[in-house]
Design goal:
Number of domains: 2
Oligomer: single chain
Strand content: 15-25%
Number of strands: 5
Shape: elongated
Structural class: alpha/beta
CATH class of the largest domain: Alpha Beta
C-alpha cells in the first residue's frame, strides 16, 4: 500500500485571489513505513507573498526568484503521486491550490491522478472532538518531537504529519494483521480438505485394552465416564 503525505506553502490564503504555491513536499510511505523517497521543491510563484504568509513560512521573493515554476516540475510531481493515496492535513486548502495550479496549465484535477485523498484534520476531529487539532497540537498529543518547527515548511510538516498519521491510525495496522491471520487460517483449513487420510481401524486387542481403560475410569468415577457416554450417544 503506497501513501503520499503532502503539504504546501503558499503566497496567501486564497487561490481565488491569485495566490500561488511557493513550496511543495511529499513524503512516501509503503506499507506504513518511510521509504526515504520524497518529493520536494521550492517554487517561483511569480508574485509577492502576503505579509501574513511570509511570517508563516519565511520564503522571500529573493529566495524564490531562481526556483522552478510549477509547470516545470508538474510532470515529476504527478508521476510521484500516481495511483497513491494522498494524505493531507486540511486537504481542501492544499487541494484547492494544487487544482488551481493544474488548471492554469490545462491539466486535470488532482483526484484524477491519485487513488484517494484522506484529510487528517477531518480524521483528527472525529478522534478528538472539541479539541485543538492543528499539527502542533497533534504532535504534542502523540508525543512527536516538533521542536525544529520554528517556521512552517512543507517538507518538515509532511514528515511530522506522516508520524502523526501513523500514530492516529495505529489500530488499523493491528486490524490488518488480524485479517492477515484469518486469511492464513482459512487457507490452512482449505488446504487440509485436499488430504485423503488413510483410516486404520483398531485391532481386537486394542479394543479390549481400550475397554479396560474405560472400566477403570468408570470405577474411579462412580460410573460417570464421559468417553463411554459419548460412544453410546454416537
Amino acid at each position: 500500500m503506497r501513501q503520499i503525505i503532502l503539504d504546501t506553502e503558499t503566497t496567501g490564503l486564497d487561490y481565488k485571489l491569485g495566490h500561488r504555491i511557493v513550496e511543495l513536499a511529499a513524503v512516501e510511505l509503503s506499507n506504513r513505513q518511510f521509504t526515504g523517497n520524497n518529493f520536494h521543491y521550492y517554487l517561483n510563484p511569480q508574485r509577492e507573498s502576503d505579509e501574513g504568509a511570509l511570517q508563516v513560512h519565511g520564503l522571500t521573493t529573493e529566495f524564490l526568484r531562481d526556483k522552478p515554476k510549477f509547470h516545470e516540475i508538474v510532470k515529476d510531481f504527478l508521476n510521484f503521486i500516481q495511483d497513491a493515496e494522498l494524505i493531507i492535513h486540511n486537504a481542501p486548502f492544499d487541494v484547492g491550490f494544487l487544482n488551481s495550479e493544474l488548471s492554469l496549465i490545462h491539466l486535470p484535477t488532482l483526484d484524477t491522478h491519485c487513488s484517494m485523498i484522506t484529510d487528517t484534520l477531518k480524521l483528527a476531529k472525529e478522534l478528538h472532538p472539541g479539541k485543538r487539532n492543528n499539527l502542533d497540537a497533534l504532535c504534542e498529543r502523540y508525543a512527536i518531537d516538533n521542536s525544529k518547527r520554528t517556521l512552517h515548511g512543507a517538507l518538515l510538516d509532511a514528515e511530522l504529519l506522516a508520524e502523526v498519521y501513523l500514530a492516529m491510525t495505529r489500530g488499523q495496522n493491528s486490524l490488518m494483521m488480524e485479517f492477515e491471520s484469518v486469511e492464513v487460517t482459512e487457507f490452512s483449513v482449505k488446504s487440509i480438505t485436499h488430504f485423503n487420510p488413510k483410516i486404520i481401524f483398531a485391532s481386537e486387542d486394542e479394543c479390549l485394552q481400550h475397554e479396560q481403560v474405560l472400566n477403570a475410569i468408570d470405577k474411579a468415577g462412580g460410573g460417570s465416564c464421559i468417553w463411554r457416554k459419548r460412544i453410546e450417544q454416537d
